[in-house]
Write a structure and sequence with these properties.
Residues 1-40 are annotated as: Disordered. The chain is mainly α. It has helices at 45-70, 72-83, 89-122, 126-147, 154-175, 177-180.
Length: 203
């Protein structure tokens, strides 16, 4: 028994001499199904450098948190001087402890954001590049505000400036020309519908 046209496992349609052989129509995907999306490939060196800088930023966040614990006495003394005797020792201790607790939470969140943005940027996600730049702007404002508080010490300010420089270098590397093409969306290819002898619109 011979296979009927259009049935599964049907032999290809033989074309006239000099023309291509048309495969079984059942093996074609419907029109508009879309083909495979090309991958991002290997990131350029600028993105790789930015990736490692962001991991360094995460490490600096943790180190800065640990260094903050070594500055408790100096922080307490600065807070007492800023209060001009209006706060008791208990109140000052409470403020310092609350400040340290908030600092720990902020440092852990900051480290997590650094790592998240690092891997997302290395994967070529443009939203990560934009979001990381926004975070850098917010950190800049936070650093400037912290520099004028009583809790700021020379060591904590130095760590803040170092972290800011790492962020600045990262933003520059992500936005320079060599990195731009890596963050562009990959094109999606849609195949044309198959054409068969004797089909609609064929002569």
């Amino acid at each position: 028994m011979t296979n009927q046209p259009g049935w599964p496992n049907q032999e290809p349609y033989p074309g006239p001499p000099g023309y291509p052989v048309y495969p079984n129509p059942n093996e074609y995907q419907p029109f508009g199904a879309g083909g495979p999306t090309p991958g991002k490939g290997t990131p350029p060196q600028t993105v790789t450098y930015a990736f490692y800088l962001m991991l360094a930023g995460a490490a600096l966040s943790i180190i800065g948190m640990l260094v903050g614990f070594t500055q408790i006495n100096e922080t307490r003394q600065r807070a007492a001087e800023a209060s001009h005797g209006n706060l008791s020792d208990h109140d000052i201790d409470t403020l310092v402890n609350v400040g340290l607790g908030v600092g720990v939470v902020v440092s852990l969140i900051s480290a997590g954001l650094w790592i998240w943005m690092a891997f997302a940027s290395r994967a070529g996600k443009n939203w990560a590049r934009v979001t990381g730049t926004v975070f850098f702007g917010l950190y800049t404002l936070s650093m400037l505000a912290e520099a004028f508080t009583a809790n700021a010490t020379a060591v904590t300010i130095a760590f803040s400036v170092l972290t800011w420089l790492v962020g600045l270098a990262t933003v520059i590397l992500l936005w320079i020309k060599q990195s731009g093409g890596y963050f562009r969306p990959a094109p999606v290819y849609t195949p044309y519908p198959p054409i068969y002898p004797g089909g609609p619109g064929n002569f």
